[in-house]
Amino acid sequence: MKKVCFIASCDIFPVSAGHHRAMYEICKYLHGLKDVRVKILVLSREKLRCPARYREIADEVVVIDIPRKWGLLDWLNKVTIRVGLDMMRNFWWSVGMRNQVVNECEGADTIVQNYVNWFALLPKKIRKAKTILVTHDLFFYRRASFKGQKTWLERMLVKANRKFEVRLLSSFKKVCVFGDYEVNLLHDAGLPPERVLKLGLPLTVEGNIDVNRRTEFDFITIGSGIYQNVEGARVFLTRVVPLLEGRMVSIAVAGGLSSCDIWDSPIVPKNLRVVRLGYVDDLRVACARALIGVGTVPVGSGIKVKNVEMIMNGLPMLLTDSGQEGIPVSSDGSINIDRVSKDELKTRLLAWLDCPGCAKHDGYDQGIKLRKEFSPCNTLRGLGDVICGYDA
User: Fold this and answer.
1) Contact status, residue 329 vs residue 194, Cβ threshold 8 Å
2) Per the omega criterion (within 30 degrees of 0), is the bond before 14 cis?
3) How far apart are CA 26 and CA 282, in angstroms?
4) What does DSSP say about strands 2-8 and 110-114: parallel, antiparallel, or unpaired?
5) Which helix (DSSP H) or strand (DSSP E) does residue 61 occupy?
């Protein structure tokens, strides 16, 4: 029997964000392996919101209390953040939690830790001997995307964060990333290839894709109200909808993004009808009501889970370079608005809008391909082999 201790950086349930979904799928996969026992350590200040649901993905769950707000360790953490090193964001919290984490991990054959900025939860000796890190994101790349590298100071901070992050990553037994581009970034930064394991984003979706569905909306976008999603809406409103001037179109907005002020702003074109769906219980049902998915975030790093989910539910997509990052889309099923001219974008969009059946078939082919490529049995097989010792 292999004992796995999985350190979750937050309460996984309800599964409402991309990192929740990734952690859920990894735990579920490991829990389903023969002769593997999974214990989850949840880092949180609150009680578990859905404790019964952890039985789906683990044999045992333990809450590790994050140090209280405005206590000494929290105050030290706030001071340390100002240094500008992203890896130190949770340092003092981690120091305060280390003894409990180490005690809970005692006897584990493998520890799976999420996010490198929680590195101080475990001594280097334990990280090196039996800890697999799931990065979710490369922080130096994220910093470059969000804050840019236009000035000397910005470039220096990206370089310093890159050096420090790679040094920390090298202290783990294995480092897991979701995309090929992340593998290349780490190889270029000097991390040995044999230390890096590319997973691919593990996702499953329920039900089949219905190409004969009747649609209510021309477009749909899904996401929380965070900065990059709001800016993605701005890109759609200013770079896409104006090309369709003279034609009334509609967009459904699901998730926290639907309550953002941008949908009431003057930049919303007159030819666009906005329908706010709010939080949706079943993403599959929401996607079935629309023809084309919108994932036009202009900044950000890592694979955008909501974009993957829309594709897996059969929607042809409008994407940007950032929105497409790490996703093996098809040339027919997606349009990258950063890579085509305005004329080509307008022509292809009108072809989808004028022939919904064509759009649905393009989305279907792309969705089926991604369902296979990102299925947990494909993406997580390598991780399972490492844990079970099959790669030795």
Assistant:
1) no
2) yes
3) 21
4) parallel
5) strand 60-65
Residue 132: which pLDDT band, with cuts at 50, 70 and 90? very high
- Evaluate if residue 368 carries a pLDDT over 60: yes
Through-space distance between the first and last CA atoms of the chain, rounded to whole angstroms = 17
The interaxial angle of helices 305-312 and 356-373, nearest 10 deg, is: 120
Say whether pTM exceeds 0.85. no
CB-based contacts of 36, cutoff 8 Å, min separation 6: 1, 2, 4, 30, 387, 388
Give 230-246 pLDDT, tens digit per residue.
999 999 999 999 999 99
Q: How high is the mean pLDDT of the chain?
A: 92
Strands 290-295 and 317-319: parallel
Angle at 137 between CA 131 and CA 139, to 5 degrees: 100
DSSP string, 14-48: S--SHHHHHHHHHHHHHHTSTTEEEEEEEEESS--
Describe the crossing of helices 18-31 and 305-312 by its angle, rounded to 10 degrees. Answer: 70
The tokens 């949706």 sit on which residue? 280
If DSSP codes are grouped into helix, strand and coil, which group holds residue 163? Answer: helix
> In 10 A of CB 334, how many CB atoms?
22
Q: Determine contact, residues 377/33, Cβ cutoff 8 Å.
A: no
Contact in structure between 358 and 4 (CB atoms under 8 Å)? no
Sheet arrangement for strand 196-198:
60-65, 36-44, 2-8, 110-114, 131-134, 174-177, 196-198
Tell me what percent of the residues of the chain surpass a pLDDT of 90.
Answer: 71
Residue 379 DSSP one-character state: H
d(CA 23, CA 310): 19
Work out the widest C-alpha separation in the chain, in whole angstroms.
67
Model confidence band, residue 86 (pLDDT cutoffs 50, 70, 90): confident
Residue that is written with structure tokens 């369709």 in the block: 244
**Helix and strand element counts for the chain (H, E):** 15, 13
